[in-house]
Amino acid sequence: MEQKNNKKKRFNKEFKESAVQLVENGKSAAQVARELGLPEWQVQTWVRDARKKKNGTVGDVNLLEELKRLKKENARLQEEAEILKKAAKYFAQHQQ
């Protein structure tokens, strides 16, 4: 019985960039994949990621995540401030 190696292949940045450059210079992703002995989806993923990075959409995703986190934190802080206001009002009334 054959045992499969489930380790992922790791490719350095330069290798990926050269594959993307080949596609950008007119070769198809399928052709580049065949020449490099890779699955076509892998080359397509690298090309898509490079285009996203070039267009700034990767950064936009990070900004949206940060905005979401800050809105959540703001809501929590507003709730805490409201609780403190109510507590101060309560103690002010019952101190007399």
Which features characterize this protein?
96 residues; mainly alpha; 4 helices
Short note summarizing the structure:
This protein is an all-alpha fold. It is built from 4 helices and no strands.
* H and E string: HHHH
User: What fold name goes in the CATH topology slot?
Assistant: Arc Repressor Mutant, subunit A
Give the helix tally. Answer: 4
Q: What is the approximate shape?
A: rod-shaped
What average pLDDT do the residues reach?
87
Radius of gyration: 27 Å
Task: Return the CATH architecture.
Answer: Orthogonal Bundle
Biggest sheet overview: none
Number of domains: 1
Poorly predicted tracts of residues: none
Indicate the structural class.
Answer: mainly alpha
**Which class in CATH terms?**
Mainly Alpha
Distance between the termini: 86 Å
Helix content: over 70%
The tally of strands reads 0
Strand content: under 5%
Give an overview of the whole structure.
The protein has 96 residues and is an all-alpha fold. The chain has one domain: Arc Repressor Mutant, subunit A, CATH 1.10.10. 77% of the residues lie in helices and 0% in strands. It has 4 helices and no strands. It has helices at 13-24, 29-36, 40-55, 57-94. It is rod-shaped, with a radius of gyration of 27 Å.
Strands, helices and their partners?
Elements: H1 13-24, H2 29-36, H3 40-55, H4 57-94
Helix pairs in contact: 1-2, 1-3, 2-3
